[in-house]
Design goal:
Elements lengths: L1 E8 L4 H14 L4 E5 L4 E6 L5 H11 L2 E9 L13
Antiparallel strand pairs: 1-3, 1-4, 2-3
Helix pairs in contact: 1-2
Length: about 90
């Protein structure tokens, strides 16, 4: 699984986050998408690599500006009590 982090300019509230999330879900096959207007970023979890040009086009259509894209392998975080499991 891959984690793609988008830095986005222009998000001001929860509704802005919803617009970005809905736009990404409608245009790409993703497992999860979470946006934060306070951080100015959107995090996407996906099995497939996403085309950066299409991401930029999708974000631009919503009226926000895509500043950067970073990709990294995703590793599921271990739970708080994971040390008890062996």
């Amino acid at each position: 699984m891959q984690q793609i982090t988008l830095k986005i300019d222009g998000m001001m509230c929860g509704m802005c986050e919803s617009h970005i999330n809905e736009s990404i879900r409608n245009n790409f096959s993703v497992n999860k998408v979470i946006s934060s207007h306070t951080k100015g970023e959107t995090v996407i979890l996906t099995e497939n690599d996403l085309d950066e040009a299409k991401l930029k086009e999708t974000i631009d259509k919503t009226g926000y500006k895509l500043l950067s894209v970073s990709k990294a392998p995703y590793e599921k975080k271990k739970g708080f009590f994971s040390f008890l499991k062996k």
